[in-house]
């Protein structure tokens, strides 16, 4: 249910400038045989014809093996990403969200009425700030009144979806991008305003200055149609550098392995 996953996005996205989520949607690998060749030709066609980048050509990231396939495509289209990909191992946790689900009485009971019945003190007690508690209530209200619905969210194109969900208190464009990547599993979302995605591009490309949001589309064109996955690696690159790891021009050869857990 989209309401539940919007709730998860709201709860697990910090209030700081970048959420740095630590897990990509991942299922078991598919075999890259003749079907992989067909998929590669599809991606090549999409690259050649800008207007044809769409969900019809590229599967969602929750499809079996699609993240692994996207990673292989990114390695080929941008060799600078290879050592970062090899050094990074995703892990994650959603402790606060699990407490929230328990407070509602289980996943099946997460619905507008149940959320609106929870008081701010109850939500604060499980680790949700008073501010985010008000955001959760606003989200539940918009579902209750029909402004938001699962069917609208699943079928909307990206720009319209950003406009709709940013009507909810606490959801900026960055939060919606997180939702599109990590819940809707859309493969080609570029969080162009996100400072750490921009910093990652700056480090990766050896730029003197932080690229402007307006320049990100052109700089990241090479990652299409898998900019969602490449963006995840930009978060990892920036976080690794901040922790004293990676660079030295992106290391590996058996050295640094970066892990991050989101609690």
UniProtKB/TrEMBL annotation:
A GO cellular component term found in this entry reads: protein-DNA complex
Per UniProt, the keywords (alphabetical) are: DNA damage, DNA repair
Which SUPFAM superfamilies does this chain map to?
Answer: DNA-glycosylase
> From which domain of life does this come?
Eukaryota
Q: Which InterPro entries does the record cross-reference, listed alphabetically?
A: Alkylbase_DNA_Glycosylase/TA (IPR051912), DNA_glycosylase (IPR011257), HhH-GPD_domain (IPR003265)
Q: Where is the HhH-GPD domain?
A: 84-239
Q: Where is this region: Disordered?
A: 1-45
GO MF terms held by the record? alkylated DNA binding; DNA-3-methyladenine glycosylase activity; DNA-7-methylguanine glycosylase activity
Name the residue ranges with Low complexity bias.
1-24, 34-45
GO BP annotations of the record are: base-excision repair, AP site formation; DNA alkylation repair
Q: Which residues form a coiled coil?
A: none
Family in the record: Belongs to the alkylbase DNA glycosidase AlkA family.
**Name of this chain's protein:** HhH-GPD domain-containing protein
**Lineage, broadest ranks:** Eukaryota, Viridiplantae, Streptophyta, Embryophyta, Tracheophyta
């Amino acid at each position: 249910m989209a309401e539940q996953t919007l709730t998860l996005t709201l709860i697990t996205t910090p209030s700081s400038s970048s959420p740095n989520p630590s897990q990509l949607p991942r299922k078991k690998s598919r075999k890259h045989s003749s079907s992989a060749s067909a998929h590669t030709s599809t991606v090549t066609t999409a690259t050649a014809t800008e207007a044809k980048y769409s969900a019809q050509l590229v599967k969602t990231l929750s499809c079996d093996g699609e993240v692994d396939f996207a990673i292989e495509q990114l390695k080929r289209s941008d060799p600078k990403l290879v050592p970062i990909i090899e050094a990074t191992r995703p892990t994650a946790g959603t402790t606060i969200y699990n407490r929230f689900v328990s407070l509602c009485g289980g996943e099946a009971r997460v619905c507008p009425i149940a959320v609106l019945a929870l008081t701010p003190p109850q939500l604060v007690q499980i680790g949700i700030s008073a501010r985010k508690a008000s955001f959760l209530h606003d989200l539940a209200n918009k579902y209750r009144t029909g402004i938001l619905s699962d069917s609208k969210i699943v079928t909307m194109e990206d720009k319209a979806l950003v406009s709709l969900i940013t009507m909810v208190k606490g959801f900026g464009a960055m939060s919606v991008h997180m939702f599109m990547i990590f819940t809707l599993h859309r493969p080609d979302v570029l969080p162009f305003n996100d400072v750490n995605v921009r910093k990652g591009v700056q480090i990766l490309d050896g730029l003197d200055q932080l690229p402007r949001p307006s320049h990100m589309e052109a700089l990241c064109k090479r990652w299409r149609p898998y900019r969602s996955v490449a963006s995840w690696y930009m978060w990892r690159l920036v976080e690794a550098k901040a922790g004293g790891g990676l660079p030295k021009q992106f290391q590996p050869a058996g050295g640094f392995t970066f892990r991050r857990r989101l609690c």
